[in-house]
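Please review this one:
***
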Amino acid sequence: MAPVLTDVEKYLTDFQAFEQALPAGEAAWVRDLRRRGIARFQEVGLPTARKGNERWKYTNVGPIASATFHHPVAAPARTPAVAEFRDLLPWQEDWLRLVFVDGRFAPELSDTAGAPDGVRLDSLAAALTSDGQVAEQHLARYATPDIDGFTALNAAFLRDGALVHVPDGVELATPLLLVYLTTEHDSPVVTYPRTLVVLGRNAAVTLVEAYVGLAAGRYFTDAVTEVVLDEGARAHHYRYLREGAEAFHIGTTKVHQGRDSTFESVAFEMGCAIARNDVHVLLDDPGASCVLNGLYMTAGTQHMDNDINIDHLKPHCSSSQYWKGILAGRSRAVYSGRVVVHRDAQKTYATQADKNLLLSEEAEIDTKPSLFIYADDVQCTHGATAGHIDEDAYFYLRSRGLDAETASRLLINGFAREILDGISLAPLREYLDRLTSSSLPEFRFSERR
C-alpha cells in the first residue's frame, strides 16, 4: 500500500515534477523566487484550524488540505471554443483581453491588438523569458511568499499569468478583460494564476479580472494579484468570481498606491464550495484614495470569506469599504474589514460597512469590521448589520398586487442593486444585473418561522 502523504508532501511532490519540466535559461531571480516559495510552504503549510491562525479563524481550509490536486505540467490538450464559456462572464468583443486556460496563456482566445503604443499586455511566461525588467522590479514585492501558505505555493509554482504595464501618461481607454478558465479534467487539478498590474505616473486602466470554471467536479484555484499605482495613476478594477459549484478558490490581491493615485474596485462573488478573497491596500503617499465595494451571494453549503485590509501610512488619504451579502440555505459567509491608521497618517478619512441579508434561519454570517487608529486627526466610521427581509415592505408589495415570488425578488434585488449601481462600466453592470436577478434564491417567510 502506498504511503499517505501529508498536505505539505503532496505539494512537494508536485513541485519536483514541475521544476524538472521548466525550460532552461530562466533568470536566476525567477528560480530563487520559486525556491523561496516552496521553502516557506514547507515551513508553514496551509493555514488549517489546528494552527490557530487568527486570520483564518472562521474559514476551515481542511477540505483543501486533505484533498489531492494534480498540477498539470503540460499545456492543455484542447483549447475550448469561446462559445463554451462566453455566457459565464461579461464577454465583449470590443474589449481587449488576455485569456488563460488551466493556468496557461491562450493566444488564440486573446486580443490585444488595439492597445496604445507603449502599453504591454502580455503573459508572464513570455515576460520572464524575454524582457523581464518590470516583472523583476515588482513581482512578489508586495504579495510575498511569507504571507501564508497559499501565497507561498503561488510563488513556488510561478509560471504564467498576466502582465499589464501602462507607462507614464497613457490611458488605456478600452477595458481589459483577464480570464482565468479551468476546464474539465479526469482528476482534480490546481492552478496558480498570477497577475501583475503596473501603472506609471498619471496612467489609467479599467480592468475586469474574471475567474470561471467549466469543470463540474472539484478543483482548486490559488490566485495572486499585485497592483502598483505610481503618482496620479487611476485604476478601475472589477473582480468577478464564478467558479464551479465544487471548486475551491483562494485569491490574494495586494495594492500599493503612490501619491494622489486612485484605486476603485468592485468584487462580485458567487459559486464555489469554499472561496476566500484576501485584499490588502497600502496607501503609501499623501492624497491616495481607494474604494473597495463587493457583493457576494451564497447558497446551499457554500462558504465565502472576504478579508479586506487597508493601511493608511501617510496623511491626507481616504478609503471606503462597502460590502453586501445575500445568504441562503445553510451557507456561511465571513467579512473581516480592517483599517489601520498609522501614526503619521493625519487627516485620514476612512469608512467601512458590511450589510447582510439572510434568507434562511440556517444561513450564517461572521462579520468583524475593525479600526486601529494611531493618529489623532481623523474621520473614521465602521459598522455591520445582518437581518431578514423586512416583513412590512414585503406585505406592502403584496397589498399592491404582487405575488409572493415577485415581491421577495424585488426586495432582494433592491438590496443588491446599491452595489451594482456603483459599477461605472455599463456592459459589466448590465451583465451582473441580469445574472443577479436570474440567480436569486427562492424565499418564503414560512421557511424561517
About this structure: The longest strand covers residues 348-358. The radius of gyration is 22 Å. The mean pLDDT is 92.
